Please model this.
Amino acid sequence: GQNIDQPTEMTATEGAIVQINCTYQTSGFNGLFWYQQHAGEAPTFLSYNVLDGLEEKGRFSSFLSRSKGYSYLLLKELQMKDSASYLCAVRDSNYQLIWGAGTKLIIKP
Amino acid sequence: ETGVTQTPRHLVMGMTNKKSLKCEQHLGHNAMYWYKQSAKKPLELMFVYNFKEQTENNSVPSRFSPECPNSSHLFLHLHTLQPEDSALYLCASSQETSGPYEQYFGPGTRLTVT
Model:
């Protein structure tokens, strides 16, 4: 079966750095997405990786290793507004998105 | 504002009712999706439409019936639902179903079945 694993919850301090990991086993691979979802709101797109390596976008970076079935989302200079759930999703060989259950990130002052 | 709107935002219905959820996208996209989101579970893809044609139906019970009259509008018709169908129903759209195109989500309809 297809599976996406990410930690259920993480806690970090304002101003710090946090890394959210995602491992996947899917039938084929056509890209990996990270989304942010604030409580009671819709998911919003953060990043897309299809080749190995690091993609940087401001305070957020996303890394992919296809051989290891692994990605991480790195958030720097954490702000209180970064408290949200972070969803990892992989597009399989049929171009269907397989979603993880999300990681709830709690930021403390 | 993501360019995807959904109505109603909240819906309470009995198990014998019939209701419809509406989604509209103003982004000129060709693909539209219905998802179910339950607490602490991954997003569950229900239906996919590409250029108005249904391309995916992930073993969704027949009490959920989608309709896509054009590439900008998507409906989910509901009838004789069960309490376990209570969830957040999210609509999304993307330029296409393949390629590096992210999905844009609407705010969702919070459905409660009593």
